């Protein structure tokens, strides 16, 4: 059955089978009704919709359909349903949903898009059930529903002093007809949203419960490790697995595509057998080195055929007539995602179906790939998501899922593929390196009247975001890019493109402000106020929201007023949220040290204050760490760093304090998994510039002139 | 060649490990890291694999009360030492650090946290009232890729303040 016909079937079943159909527009399938099955009711469980079931024992089960990678969705989603339900949060059990297109849409973790996508749906799911529970109580008490209220898992009729817990009403309520429209709470009445609600898995995490993909076990399951070509551009020529097959615990060695899989009974035995494989490779594409990339970037900036993304005014005249021209180039290296749980996945390919279990940010893609490899239709393939030890975009790719499917198919057994850290760091996919050239034209008054940005990316498509600030605020503007196709595998890395673009742009604007003789904060405010008064072309960000975070960050950091503190400013709009940051560098024993980052954040309504605070802090730590130290280099197609000894991840002794302030504007929430990261690199770079007088135009900063002699 | 040489000199052997006060007989190659014996042979999965070269600390366990990186400790070197994993840190999951981790809401993805807690537990045993700098110095051996370091630091301070 196809997805849509399955959806129709669910709908029809719900309408004809005595089940509950929620009558308003759910926008496609998400939170569509679940047939109230006699079986569940016999077990004391009433299903209200895709998200929510209430038990006669007052237990409340809320499903979180999106992959949890540490962004806190498994807490935040149920929190929203529980808010509108007026549930007793201590009775709520949250469950990770499996992939199910009949019940949910957008079961993806990426683009900081889950909360904005599902906000209304989650609220309606809770509010509708609350409405039905009130209806059931009113019917039982023979009073008007309008006289009933709810609080912490109970319906009250205050006039008669009666109350009933949800559990007593659940089954009767689930049989009532759902309303077409339902009234949602006034945000000022929120009791859970906006408070600090702890991660629902805290206790399991602190006690070491096996929740992650790498922990998954099935009796009879085999372990596989994959030997991939050691360099991008090589392809498999021949395999001699005679020695490996003789090793203890080894069941088989199989080959697919450019990969050789060693399959056995335990991880260590498989790893040791892998070491005695004799494999020959041959060249299939260019074997690129980082030195080649540097040369290609510089060449394409000048000689490439750029694709124009946005053009305003007369750029040539603006630069010809300029009083001052500022030009700078910024470059960033390849980065590995390095989630602490290495890639792994479980697959069991049978004749009649496929079972997939593990960490993925895109379960739908995993299923599609499995279907392509096996020829088994998607509706015979199940995907369950485990808790995931980080993602950062790496688990958007399905390469490691494909491997598990190939191996299970070839050895005809349930298989868990496990990558070592070396596999994880050298096997792709990466945030690709990029180089930007900026040019700004100033008039005599110090106004930026011309702005040019050219990006040279690798497999990046368009490495610019042509509609972001300062577009709309500059009369003459040209944004274009050139792409270099590389055999090195690349993909989205937390805040794709903007993770480096924001740094380069906001560090460059610091240079422009200085050349214009203006305070960096005032410079940005002027540009935005000009854009508000007279926009140049379409403005695709909210000027007032951007101004508000700029002013809040300036206020909270006491911008320009602290003695002995070198401050750097940065602001960026990405993934629908606005974040301004001030980096603060002080001299410690004569060396510049990043001490603080003050962040002002507008993500609309803050759903879970505790989780959100940590997303911002973690984003700043991540942004600082990779800007300072992150550097993956290549020699003849082979990554030169393969573990944390060579690829440096920020540690506790290297973090700044992070002071987070949210704008309270009551606007529907936007995402926060990514937006705090992009502005950080420039806040840090600009603060170091103030302290040292040296611009940091290349990442990682640690290799720059300003850090010579400082470890 | 070096690998084949190494293979020849590793051999299967029987060990009787004491883990979380229980005895586990295992038969594995003598160079198998304790991490993989715990995970694959014994089925204790709370100890995590992160790097395999003692760089990240996700695999931290206690050996006679001392924090060690189990990913580089061959099973043959364990001897009669008592191994404690996150599952055995407390009987009811109520070690002051485990409680502080929940109270402070430390975890994002959670993958590194068992190793963080095990490192901190051994540290607090020797130094029950540490300074912030001592906490930072000790915990800088453990990576948290999500960047929960501020809360790890705070949770250790909370646990230390509640321990007498």
From TrEMBL, chain A:
Q: Which PROSITE patterns does the record cross-reference, listed alphabetically?
A: TAT
Record InterPro entries: Ald_Oxase/Xan_DH_a/b, AldOxase/xan_DH_MoCoBD1, AldOxase/xan_DH_MoCoBD2, AldOxase/xan_DH_Mopterin-bd_sf, N-heterocyclic_Hydroxylase, OxRdtase_Mopterin-bd_su_IorB, TAT_signal, TAT_signal_bac_arc
Residues covered by the Aldehyde oxidase/xanthine dehydrogenase a/b hammerhead domain:
207-285
Q: Please give the Pfam families that the UniProt record associates with this protein.
A: MoCoBD_1, MoCoBD_2
- Per its record, what are the GO molecular function terms? oxidoreductase activity
- Gene3D superfamilies under this entry? Aldehyde oxidase/xanthine dehydrogenase, a/b hammerhead (3.90.1170.50), Aldehyde oxidase/xanthine dehydrogenase, molybdopterin binding domain (3.30.365.10)
Matching NCBIfam families, A to Z?
TAT_signal_seq
What protein is this chain from?
Isoquinoline 1-oxidoreductase beta subunit
Task: Name the species this protein comes from.
Answer: Dyadobacter jejuensis
Q: Upper taxonomic classification of the species?
A: Bacteria, Pseudomonadati, Bacteroidota, Cytophagia, Cytophagales
Automatic annotation (TrEMBL), chain B:
Q: Which Pfam families match?
A: Fer2, Fer2_2
The UniProt record lists the 2Fe-2S ferredoxin-type domain at 13-89
InterPro entries tied to this protein: 2Fe-2S-bd, 2Fe-2S-bd_dom_sf, 2Fe-2S_ferredoxin-like_sf, 2Fe-2S_ferredoxin-type, 2Fe2S_fd_BS, Beta-grasp_dom_sf, Diverse_Oxidoreductases
One annotated GO molecular function is: oxidoreductase activity
Keyword annotations: 2Fe-2S, Iron, Iron-sulfur, Metal-binding, Oxidoreductase
- CDD domains, alphabetically? fer2
Q: What is this protein called?
A: Isoquinoline 1-oxidoreductase alpha subunit
Q: Which organism is it from?
A: Dyadobacter jejuensis
């Amino acid at each position: 059955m196809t997805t849509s016909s399955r959806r129709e079937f669910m709908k029809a079943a719900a309408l004809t089978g005595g089940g509950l159909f929620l009558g308003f527009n759910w926008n496609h399938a998400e939170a569509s009704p679940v047939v109230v099955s006699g079986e569940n009711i016999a077990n004391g469980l009433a299903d209200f919709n895709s998200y929510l079931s209430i038990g006669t024992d007052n237990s409340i089960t809320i499903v979180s359909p999106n992959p949890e990678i540490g962004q806190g969705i498994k807490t935040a989603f149920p929190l929203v349903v529980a808010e509108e339900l007026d549930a007793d949060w201590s009775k709520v059990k949250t469950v990770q949903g499996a992939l199910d297109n009949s019940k949910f849409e957008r079961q993806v973790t990426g683009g900081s898009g889950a909360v904005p996508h599902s906000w209304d749906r989650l609220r309606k799911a809770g509010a509708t059930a609350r409405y039905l529970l009130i209806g059931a109580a009113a019917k039982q008490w023979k009073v008007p529903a309008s006289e009933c209220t709810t609080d912490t898992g109970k319906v009250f009729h205050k006039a008669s002093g009666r109350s009933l817990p949800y559990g007593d009403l659940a089954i009767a309520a689930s049989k009532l007809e759902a309303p077409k429209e339902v009234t949602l709470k006034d945000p000022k009445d929120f009791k859970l949203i906006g408070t600090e609600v702890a991660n629902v898995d805290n206790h399991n995490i602190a006690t070491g419960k096996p929740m992650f993909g790498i922990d998954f076990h099935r009796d009879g399951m085999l372990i596989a490790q994959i030997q991939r070509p050691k360099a991008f551009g090589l392809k498999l020529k021949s395999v001699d697995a005679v020695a490996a097959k003789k090793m203890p615990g080894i069941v088989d060695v199989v080959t697919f595509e450019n990969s050789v899989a060693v399959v056995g009974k335990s991880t260590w035995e498989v790893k040791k057998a892998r070491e005695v494989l004799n494999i020959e490779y041959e060249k299939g594409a260019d074997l690129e080195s980082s030195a080649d990339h540097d040369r290609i970037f510089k060449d394409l900036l000048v000689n490439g055929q750029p694709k124009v993304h946005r053009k305003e005014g007369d750029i040539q005249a603006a630069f010809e007539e300029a009083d001052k021209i500022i030009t700078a180039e910024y470059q960033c290296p390849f980065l590995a995602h390095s989630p602490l749980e290495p890639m792994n996945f479980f697959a069991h390919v049978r004749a009649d179906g496929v079972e997939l279990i593990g960490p993925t940010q895109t379960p739908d893609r995993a299923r599609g790939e499995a279907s392509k490899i096996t020829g088994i239709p998607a509706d015979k393939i199940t995907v369950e998501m485990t808790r995931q030890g980080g993602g950062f975009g790496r688990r958007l790719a399905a390469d490691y899922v494909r491997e598990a499917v190939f191996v299970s198919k070839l050895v005809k057994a349930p298989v868990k593929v496990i990558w070592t850290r070396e596999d994880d760091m050298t096997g792709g996919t990466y945030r690709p390196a990029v180089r930007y050239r900026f040019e700004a034209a100033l008039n005599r008054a110090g106004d930026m009247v011309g702005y040019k940005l050219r990006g040279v990316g690798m497999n990046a498509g368009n490495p610019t975001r042509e509609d972001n600030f300062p577009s709309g605020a500059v009369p003459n503007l040209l944004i274009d890019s050139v792409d270099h196709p590389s055999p090195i595998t690349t993909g989205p890395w937390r805040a794709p493109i903007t993770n480096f673009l924001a740094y380069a742009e906001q560090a460059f604007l610091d240079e422009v402000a200085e050349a214009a003789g203006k305070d960096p904060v005032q410079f940005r405010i002027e540009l935005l106020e000009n854009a508000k008064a007279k926009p140049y072309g379409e403005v695709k960000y909210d000027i007032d929201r951007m101004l508000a975070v700029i002013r809040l960050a300036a206020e909270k950091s006491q911008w320009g007023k602290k003695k002995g503190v070198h401050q750097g400013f940065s602001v960026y709009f990405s993934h629908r949220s606005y974040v301004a940051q001030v980096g603060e560098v002080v001299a410690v024993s004569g060396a510049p040290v990043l001490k603080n980052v003050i962040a002002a954040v507008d993500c609309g309504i803050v759903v879970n204050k505790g989780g959100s605070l940590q997303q911002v802090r973690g984003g700043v730590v991540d942004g600082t760490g990779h800007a300072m130290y992150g550097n993956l280099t290549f020699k003849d197609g082979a990554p030169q760093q393969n573990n944390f000894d060579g690829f440096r991840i920020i540690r506790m002794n290297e973090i700044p304090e992070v002071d987070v302030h949210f704008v309270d504007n009551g606007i529907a929430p936007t995402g926060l998994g990514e937006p705090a990261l992009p502005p950080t690199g420039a806040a840090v770079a600009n603060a170091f510039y103030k302290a040292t007088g040296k611009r940091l135009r290349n990442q990682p900063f640690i290799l720059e002139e300003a850090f010579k002699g400082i470890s | 060649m070096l690998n084949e040489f190494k293979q020849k000199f590793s051999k299967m052997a029987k060990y009787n490990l004491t883990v979380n006060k229980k005895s586990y007989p295992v038969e594995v190659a003598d160079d198998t890291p304790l991490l993989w014996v715990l995970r694959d042979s014994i089925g204790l999965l709370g100890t995590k694999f992160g790097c395999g070269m003692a760089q990240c600390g996700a695999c931290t366990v206690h050996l006679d009360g001392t924090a060690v990186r189990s990913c580089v400790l061959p099973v043959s070197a364990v001897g009669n030492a008592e191994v404690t994993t996150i599952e055995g840190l407390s009987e009811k999951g109520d070690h002051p650090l485990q409680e502080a981790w929940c109270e402070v809401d430390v975890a994002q993805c959670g993958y590194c946290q068992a190793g963080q807690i095990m490192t901190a537990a051994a540290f607090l045993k020797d130094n029950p009232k540490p300074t912030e700098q001592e906490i930072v110095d000790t915990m800088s051996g453990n990576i948290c890729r999500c960047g929960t370091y501020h809360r790890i630091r705070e949770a250790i301070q909370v646990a230390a303040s509640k321990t007498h």
